[in-house]
Amino acid sequence: MSKRDRLIDKNQDSNPESTIKNTIKNMTKKMTKKKSYRITLDPSTDIGNDNSFDIKIRINSSPSIIPIVPINSAVPVKDDIGSKIEVAVKGATKKILTIIESRDKDILNSDGMQIKIIKAIDDSGEASYIGEVLNGEFHGYGTFIQDVHRYEGEYFHHYQHGKGKLTNDKKFYEGEIRFGLPHGLGKFIASNGNTYEGQFKNGNPHGKGTVNCKGKYIGEGNFKDGSMEGLGKRVWLNGAIEEGNFLDNTLHGQGKHIFPNGDIHEGTYKLGEINGHSKCTFITGNSYEGNILEGKCHGYGKLHHGENLIYEGEFFAGEKHGNGKLQIPGEPFYEGEFVRGKASGKGKAIYVDGTIYEGHFLNGDKHGNGKAIYSDGCIYEGEFKYNSMNGPGIYTFRDGTVVEALWSNDPVKKEFTGFTKDGKKLTYSTH
Questions:
Q1: What's the fold here for domain 1-47+238-330?
Q2: Higher pLDDT among residues 148 and 201, named by residue
């Protein structure tokens, strides 16, 4: 997770009126002038593209831990020297073991029955069993080896059942087993070095546990059917921390995500993505609090730069859209309607020089009918076009002179011209 989530945009500008594209893939960008606010979580970058082990440790499929039983388990196995035992491990060739040693154990079991200890091997020497049998069944403590499979532990009527150790190629399990599957407390080590230690159910991590994804993260919390589900916490090697409610190994519900650079996202998540009321705090001092939908600001929210409230109002799909207030230090204050990130519709603006305008806007410009009270005391009320007086309007000078005319502006000559109803032309400098 190498990229920072903050108030950012591709242009790498410094304007606080910017995009919040908070992705783990983009942790190095800065604030810009683009007026789109986006918050996105993608925990599949540096911190975990390799899902070969992630959290899902399917013990019942790798390694295979199944009952080691005769083909017909209803028929007791004879435990005399020379007797044959047919066994098979899932995914391995069936083997015929021949009992070469058999003796009575010194003590009887709790039911007063005689326990025997046997040693049986196949002709190739690749499979063997040394351990206890009762009434012809593997029962008690024993060790079974076949090819890369090795089990050492307790049996119950042919089943691996109780406590035991199982090695399957480079994979290892030690702990409680129920009818051939990890069940209860145990520890599993995968071939790539990843580990899980905690509770199992029917071969899968289930209940309280701790997983160590080698080179990625350490996670602890609740598991269900092999996946992190419920309350949990993951600490990533790069310093990132995820904490809260999980579903299928991803934050889901209330959660908190601390990024490697110190940015913090806290709120409601949906399958790993912020979704609902949330708060995002960035090391730049910027913060966003409000509603988020599918990773984007959507609905009502507040955007701060340090202690300063920059924008408060409505968002739609990551952009200011609807009614809101915009105040960027050193720039005009605006309150009114926004469309796709820009002032459009009815609104009021107070400019840095003290000019006040109230009326219609289009894409951030005074456009349409409005009234401007200029800092020098002059007043214009009428039509505007792209920030300039254009069309019918009334201009009131500081001395009280009122002129009603059809106005136009010449930005090259830096002057504006008005034609009165009697045809008189008036020209004024804008210097």
A1: 2.20.110
A2: 201
Q: Between the CA of residue 395 and those of 45, 175, 265, 367, 382, what are the distances in Å?
A: 60, 89, 51, 17, 8
Contact at 8 Å (CB) between 160 and 59? no
Instruction: Assess whether pLDDT exceeds 90 at residue 47.
Output: no
Report, in this order, helix, strand and coil percent for the chain, each rounded to 5.
Answer: 0, 60, 40
Q: What is the pLDDT of residues 339-383, one digit of tens each?
A: 999 999 999 999 999 999 999 999 999 999 999 999 999 999 999
- Cα dihedral sign, 253-255-260-264: positive
Structure token pair of residue 306: 């340090």
- Cis omega (within 30 of 0) for bond into 392: no
- 244-250: long-range contacts, CB 8 A cutoff, minimum separation 24: 244/269, 245/269, 246/221, 246/222, 247/271, 249/54, 249/55, 249/56, 250/43
Tokens of 191: 């071939």
Q: Which residue has the tokens 């079991």?
A: 109
pLDDT digit string (tens) for 221-236? 999 999 999 999 999 9
Model pTM score: 0.66
Q: How many other CB atoms are there within 10 angstroms of residue 368's CB atom?
A: 16
| Cα 366 from chain centroid (whole Å) | 42
CATH of 332-431, one of 3.40.50, 2.60.120, 2.30.29, 2.20.110: 2.20.110
Q: How many other CB atoms are found less than 10 A from the CB of residue 325?
A: 17
Sign of CA dihedral 75, 78, 79, 83: negative
Per residue in 112-143, pLDDT (tens digit) is 777 889 999 998 888 999 999 888 788 899 99
